[in-house]
């Protein structure tokens, strides 16, 4: 099946989202800014959505609509969905995760469902604490690890750890926080710049 | 490493008062409580008088939240020395075992409390929390239902039950729990709005109509509740032509409140 590449920015924002709300289930969307290239998907950004009442419909629908509109304005498209469960020992997709991922795969052929594995997020983790699923024969099945790429994983991990230690997860705005204070920017431009700054010595084209 | 007192230019009294405020507001800002509390305990313990015991309890719980078992153990040991036979301290000891994922031992502690005092609600709720932490939602729901048969007025428990039902996608029962909460808290806009969301999720003409009513009620109680406003907007867009005027009404309301992104 197709390859999936996860960018530094996408990973770090998801990671910080999980760290900002360690006691809640969190979810969000995965975006891509490039057109589909023969089955390979390049996830360039992530949008954190909710940290409360994930299975409830109205806010999820609202968020999907708003992200859709933003994507069409910025030449991006929604290519996947991520979720981290509150219960650390359980990293399997919940029914609402499957539902949202199904909806995304209606619009995007190689949609990806990403679950965070809480048990692997200890400070000394060596491998990406994520599990990916793809849609095969109308079912979401585990993706072959070898088709998932994180370029410059060591640098990405270093950036994520550094930002966590300096408390930068407090800068992250998810859709829920945006609804609590409508002036907050759920596209996280400030955080994106910060991540780019930290990434630039390593690789100019992150 | 700079102390909290130096970084924020506060006295020990300010720190003590801040901790009290966080206690009263039931805030779960554990990292801050640990920073402030640890310094207060280690450097100003003698000045705190009898306040120190409740601060030990507060800091201990916050320390468990931040995986600071060293600090939690210190606080617990001080409390055990002072209050050797206390159920309240035994519950804290159980919470520490929970944090270390030693659920069976924690359960034994709580069972011991309940044998002595079957009406001890804190111990019963901790037992339900253990089930929740282990992912045993069905059992947690069953136990919580039994608990609520006895302690019908426990709002925290009703809210917890509504959350458990929502996670199990049992929206009907979640709605029932929220109805209980709205009856006893008719002025709480958050419950009205959550009820609206649950009804919206259930779907169907009647439920959407109810959702609209409760979103509107939430807005009446607090006109800055964005979720209720958006809920009303989303619901208005659902369905027949006569709803077009509702959409317009909501748009006008949004404009008049001048709520924009920029």
Give a structural overview:
The complex is a heterodimer of chains A (206) and B (262). Chain A is an alpha/beta fold. Chain A is 35% helix and 22% strand. Chain A contains six helices and nine strands. In chain A, the strands form two sheets. Chain A has a six-stranded mixed β-sheet, with helices on both faces. A three-stranded parallel β-sheet of chain A has the order 3-1-9. In chain A, strand 5, helix 3 and strand 6 form a beta-alpha-beta unit. In chain A, helix 1 packs parallel to helix 4. Chain A is globular. Chain B has 262 residues and is mainly alpha-helical. Chain B is globular, with a radius of gyration of 23 Å. Chains A and B meet through helix 2 of A and helix 10, helix 12 and helix 14 of B.
Radius of gyration of chain A: 16 Å
Mean pLDDT of chain A: 90
The best one-word shape of chain B is globular
> Hey, which two chains have the biggest interface?
A-B, 19 and 25 residues
What is the share of helical residues of chain B? over 70%
H and E order of chain B: HHHHHHHHHHHHHHH
The backbone outline of chain A, from C-alpha atoms, is globular
Q: Proportion of β residues of chain A?
A: 15-25%
């Amino acid at each position: 099946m197709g390859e999936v590449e996860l960018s530094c920015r996408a990973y770090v924002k998801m990671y910080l989202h999980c760290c900002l709300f360690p006691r809640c289930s969190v979810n969000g969307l995965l975006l891509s800014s490039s057109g589909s290239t023969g089955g390979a998907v390049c996830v360039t950004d992530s949008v954190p959505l909710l940290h409360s009442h994930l299975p409830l419909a109205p806010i999820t629908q609202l968020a999907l609509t708003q992200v859709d509109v933003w994507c069409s304005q910025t030449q991006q498209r929604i290519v996947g969905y991520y979720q981290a469960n509150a219960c650390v020992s359980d990293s399997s997709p919940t029914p609402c995760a499957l539902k949202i991922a199904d909806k995304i795969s209606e619009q995007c052929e190689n949609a990806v469902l990403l679950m965070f594995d809480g048990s692997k997020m200890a400070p000394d983790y060596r491998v990406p604490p994520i599990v990916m699923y793809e849609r095969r024969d109308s079912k979401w099945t585990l993706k072959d690890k070898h088709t998932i790429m994180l370029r410059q994983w060591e640098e990405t991990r270093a950036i994520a750890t550094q930002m966590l230690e300096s408390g930068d997860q407090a800068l992250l705005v998810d859709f829920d926080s945006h609804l609590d204070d409508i002036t907050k920017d759920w596209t996280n431009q400030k955080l994106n710049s910060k991540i780019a700054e930290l990434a630039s010595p390593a690789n100019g084209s992150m | 490493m700079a102390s909290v007192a130096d970084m924020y230019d506060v006295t020990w009294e300010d720190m003590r008062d801040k901790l009290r405020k966080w206690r009263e507001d039931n805030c779960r800002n554990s990292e801050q409580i640990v920073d402030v509390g640890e310094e207060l305990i280690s450097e100003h313990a003698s000045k705190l008088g009898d306040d120190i015991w409740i601060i030990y309890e507060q800091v201990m719980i916050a320390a468990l939240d931040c995986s600071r078992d060293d600090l939690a153990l210190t606080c617990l040991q001080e409390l055990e020395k002072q209050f050797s036979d206390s159920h309240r301290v035994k519950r804290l000891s159980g919470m520490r075992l929970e944090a270390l994922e030693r659920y069976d031992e924690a359960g034994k502690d709580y069972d011991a409390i309940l044998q002595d005092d079957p009406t001890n609600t804190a111990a019963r709720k901790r037992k339900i929390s253990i089930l929740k932490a282990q992912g045993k939602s069905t059992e947690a729901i069953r136990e919580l239902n039994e608990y609520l048969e006895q302690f019908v007025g426990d709002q925290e428990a009703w809210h917890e039950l509504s959350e458990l039902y929502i996670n199990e996608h049992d929206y009907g029962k979640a709605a029932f729990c929220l109805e209980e909460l709205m009856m006893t808290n008719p002025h709480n806009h958050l419950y009205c709005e959550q009820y609206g969301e649950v009804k919206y999720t259930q779907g169907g003409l009647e439920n959407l109509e109810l959702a609209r009513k409760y979103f509107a009620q939430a807005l009446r109680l607090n006109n800055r509740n964005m979720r209720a406003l958006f809920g009303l907007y989303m619901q208005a867009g659902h369905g027949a032509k006569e709803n077009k005027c509702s959409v317009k009404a909501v748009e006008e309301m949004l404009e008049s409140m001048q709520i924009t992104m920029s």
